[in-house]
Amino acid sequence: MKLTQNQIEELFKFTRAHSVEYYDLQLELVDHLANGIEKQWEEKPGLTFEEAKNLEFKKFGVFGFQEVVKQRRKAMSKRYRGIIWRHFKEWWSLPKIIATLTFVIGIFTMLKMLPPGELKKGIISGVFIGFSFVILFRTFKLKKRMEGTWRKWMLQEIIYEQGLLSSLFLIPMNFWNLTWTNNFMDNLYFQSALSLLIVSMGLLLKICGYVIPSKADEILAETYPEYKIS
Description:
The protein has 230 residues and is mainly α. 73% of the residues lie in helices and 0% in strands. The protein contains nine helices and no strands. Helix 1 crosses helix 2, helix 5 crosses helix 8 and helix 6 runs antiparallel to helix 7. The longest helix has 30 residues. The radius of gyration is 25 Å and the shape is elongated. The chain starts with a helix and ends in a 7-residue tail after the last helix.
């Protein structure tokens, strides 16, 4: 015996009632529950839909679907990190590495030209804080667009969450207030390493806060076949 369309809709409502808000996870759980219920009916035809559904739900344990949600978020976070790494590597391979090294040399030259002391650290901090606010505003606009859709996808939420967090990451810039850096700010090796670090952090900020959110639809369609028709 197969489930009817109304019964499948009931399973979607059931997953939402148990705090599963992401449509991709709802699809997975409904498919799992439906297969389990139909298998139970093959073995015990006398079971009602409610009885079979509750028996199947009990298999998830005392925490219900929460462990499944936790594992899926872990998997989606891993996928998200893979996407970041893929974009980051592109900037360190041809042809983009030319632009990356140009940025490194430009930062290095700026560090040499800026006056020493607190003013140098203040200018560098100001650049990063300004860049962070620009990306924060951009990511917030993209996130507002997501909130207008009726289906929530876990990877989509992770993309926008991390975009907003990355935008806020560099705002405090407490590093530049550490007095020990004054002893190294005019050292060529320190300036070289600092230039590389600044460019790397800037790239990560751009990737997390701008590139990936702007390509969210493309990434989601690649991850979820159902997204294309949602």
